[in-house]
Request: fold
Amino acid sequence: MGLRLTFAFSVAALGLTALAPTAAASELAPGLWCENYSCRNDTDDVYRVEAEVTCWNGISTEIRYVGRRTTEPLAYMCAPQIDPGTWEQQPPELRDGKYEHVPPKWVPGQTFPQSPFKIEYRSAVVDNNPRPAPSGSGS
Reply:
């Protein structure tokens, strides 16, 4: 009985281990490791990193740059989930001794921020001359 119980717990533990996500960083290029929301670059090159980001509303391909000899935090955002709004009936108002109809009031739905379900780093290439970020000016 004890041996069977030990065997059953061992099998269950192996099954749970197989379902757990791996936390090991993947080496995309020699000296460049990425996992979750950061990349570590131990080289003298700037890398352009491509990641596939899975959100509740779909998958997108994102590009990020990782500087020389640094660990860069990388931000990935998903569209928020928004509950549908509702119309709420308002009670009539008493004005000059008469009740007047008040139109319904629109109440917007709640917004829930979302994080990616999965970030999969696909590739990295040396890009020592990255394009500057947009300045926001119209010229």
